[in-house]
Write the C-alpha cells for this entry.
Amino acid sequence: MSRVNVLSLRIGQRVDLECDPIADPGNDGDKSDHPEFAYEFEVVESIERETEDCVCVYFESGFTCGFPVDHVVNVDPE
C-alpha cells in the first residue's frame, strides 16, 4: 500500500478504507459501519474541494466521504 494525501488522489485509484479514522471511525473489528471495507477497495470516481478544509471524495460504489485536506489514505499501488 502507498500512503496518499486525499488532495493527490486520482480518478480510478483503488483506496483501502478499512480502519480509516474518517471513513470508518467505528471500526473495532466486528462493529464497523462499513464491513465491506474489509473485503473491497473503494474506487475513486470524483474529487471535489468543498471548502478550504474539506475534500469530498466520491467512490464508484456510491460511498462518499469528506476528508480533512491533510488526511492520507492507503492506495493500492497497482
Q: What stands out?
A: Residues 42 and 61 are 7 Å apart (CA to CA). The chain is about 0% helix and 40% strand. Strands lie at 2-5, 14-16, 42-51, 54-59, 64-68, 72-75. The mean pLDDT is 91.
